Amino acid sequence: MDIKSAVLQLSSIAQEARLEIFRLLVQVGTEGLPAGNIGERLQIPASTLSFHLKELSHAGLVNSRQVSRFIYYSANYEAMNGLLVYLTENCCAEEGCNPIAACKTE
Amino acid sequence: MDIKSAVLQLSSIAQEARLEIFRLLVQVGTEGLPAGNIGERLQIPASTLSFHLKELSHAGLVNSRQVSRFIYYSANYEAMNGLLVYLTENCCAEEGCNPIAACKTE
DNA sequence: ACAATGTTTCTATATTTATGGAAATATAGA
DNA sequence: TCTATATTTCCATAAATATAGAAACATTGT
């Protein structure tokens, strides 16, 4: 993980609509949700939602896959864990404290 | 932790200079470093640095204390842990996975 | 009180980001 | 092929953020 990727990922969730989207996807699980469903739940206009989903995808924090007419978006747990590890890296150089625990990445 | 605070904290580290500052402070430990020292290490002009430190302080991710003429800035480990927990909250509702481990907060 | 050092505020400018309507594109079923 | 549905791209506008020099402010030692 380099600093530019970390900033990109952090920027992608440093915005209220996108953080809501991301957290929703994290909670929903690996299946994910179709874009329209996300927009409906969070009350976000389609074009705005599309913009935000692109930001999240581009940062690598969410994945997408097409299922017939729908595009399913889901959290990228591996990327999320990578980011958390990066933030806490060497955080306890002196005293040693517990490393961060990983969330599901299957 | 509410979403507005989370966005504020994420925004504060979603910027290259500030992420560098934050990570430096996380690695340095609870003692922290005087502003000038940070600026010297990271090659950031005083006024720019001051702006960034204010952002980080305002978000609550770093603390400051005055020691004679110097102002020491240090990572707020409790706030950092709170943010990490917020991001991973309910991340494994279905299957249950390890909760995040805390870093030093003494 | 004065000088030296450390830090912040003021200011202007440049750059990036967010928003959502309208139009375009893609997929699937009749 | 025509139609309905899902999603994205285009576009213009509005708002927020980053940068750093110069000036101001604070603290300490002489």
Structure write-up:
Two copies of one chain form a homodimer. Chain A is of the alpha+beta class and 106 residues long. Helices cover 55% and strands 13% of the residues of chain A. Chain A has a three-stranded antiparallel sheet. In chain A, a hairpin with a 2-residue loop joins strand 2 and strand 3. In chain A, helix 1 runs antiparallel to helix 4, helix 2 (16-28) crosses helix 4 (46-59) and helix 3 (35-42) packs across helix 4 (46-59). Chain A is globular and about 45 Å long. The model of chain A has no long low-confidence stretch (mean pLDDT 91). At the A-B interface, helix 1, helix 2 and helix 5 of A face helix 1, helix 2 and helix 5 of B. The first copy, chain A, binds a DNA duplex (30 and 30 nucleotides) through residues 11, 15, 17, 34-36, 45-55, 66, 68-71.
Oligomer: homodimer
Going across the major beta sheet of chain A, what is the strand order? 1-3-2
- Low-confidence runs of at least 5 consecutive residues of chain A: none
The overall pLDDT of chain A, averaged over residues, is: 91
Radius of gyration of chain A: 15 Å
Distance between the termini of chain A: 20 Å
Helix count, DSSP H or I runs of 4 or more residues of chain A: 5
- Sheet-strand content of chain A, in percent, reads 5-15%
| Amount of helix of chain A | 40-55%
In sequence order, what are the helices and strands of chain A, one letter per element? Answer: HHEHHEEH
- The number of strands of chain A is 3
Overall shape of chain A: globular
| Sheet with most strands of chain A | 3 strands, antiparallel
